[in-house]
Design goal:
CATH class of the largest domain: Mainly Alpha
CATH superfamily of the largest domain: Tetratricopeptide repeat domain
Largest sheet: 4 strands, mixed
Low-confidence stretches: none
Strand order of the largest sheet: 3-2-1-9
CATH topology of the largest domain: Serine Threonine Protein Phosphatase 5, Tetratricopeptide repeat
Order of helices and strands: EEEHEHHEEEEEHHHHHHH
Number of strands: 9
Mean pLDDT: 90
Structural class: alpha+beta
Strand content: 5-15%
Number of helices: 10
Number of domains: 2
Distance between the termini: 70 Å
Helix content: 55-70%
Length: 236
């Protein structure tokens, strides 16, 4: 069988050679947990996935999920080194692959985002982590993913801005804002982009919209740093 890949961004999928493999929900959740945590003790995995069940019932659910998801054909998905479970090292995980790709670009100052599949990277970074699942254990994992992708997107914006690729930079900044609408750093980048293009009125209008959003949602004002950014644009 060809390499098996597990997708977590935009929804769960397990596939081989692009063909989706049907798995029961329990097996999906176990694979996703191990993909995100890098392996877990069996008892801890059962309690994490079935927190409202008794220890015995959680253990039984885990055995069922493990039996259904441990192997597909002749490919092992889950390695068991009692009492620890982890995904087999041959399994591809979209989240880990994307994070490695982002780190690779960060580590190469000469590599332009535009020539490194910028559009596909931004599209991948815009996807939520398992959006249709409501498991409590995903709250922290989603927060980790959101922080990583927000910083990654803002880094791309700064690179594109430095290369004067204003349209690509603006599109990326707007994706960042869509993920976290009140995040000031993303809004500052949009303002900087407008200023760099000579569109002072657009920069000021964006600032005013953001100031109104903060006032409505949180009852606070933008930072002094943002005020200083737009002060030269205001009429005396």
């Amino acid at each position: 069988m060809d390499e098996v890949r597990v997708a977590l961004l935009g929804g769960f999928e397990c596939a081989s050679a692009g063909v989706r493999i049907a798995l029961p929900l329990g097996a999906q959740r176990l694979l996703a947990l191990l993909a995100l945590r890098g392996g877990m003790n069996r008892a801890a995995a059962g309690e994490c996935l079935w927190p409202d069940s008794t220890r015995g019932r959680a253990a039984a659910n885990l055995r069922s999920a493990l039996w259904r998801g441990r192997q597909i054909g002749d490919v092992t998905l889950i390695d068991r080194a009692n009492p620890r479970l982890q995904l087999a090292p041959t399994i591809g995980i979209d989240l880990q692959e994307l994070m490695s790709r982002v780190r690779g670009i960060r580590g190469s100052a000469r590599r332009s985002p535009a020539t490194s599949g910028w559009e596909s990277m931004v599209d991948a970074l815009s996807r939520d982590l398992l959006p249709d699942w409501c498991d409590d254990w995903l709250v922290l994992e989603r927060e980790r993913w959101d922080q990583f992708r927000l910083h990654a997107l803002e880094g791309l914006v700064q690179q594109l801005l430095g290369e004067e690729q204003y349209m690509a930079a603006l599109q990326t900044a707007l994706v960042t804002i869509a993920i976290e609408p009140i995040r000031e750093t993303a809004h500052r980048l949009v303002i900087e982009l407008h200023i760099a293009e000579g569109n002072g009125a657009s920069a000021l209008r964006h600032y005013q919209r953001y100031r109104g959003l903060l006032q409505r949602e949180l009852g606070v004002a933008p930072s002094k740093r943002m005020d200083q950014l737009v002060r030269p644009l205001m009429a005396p």
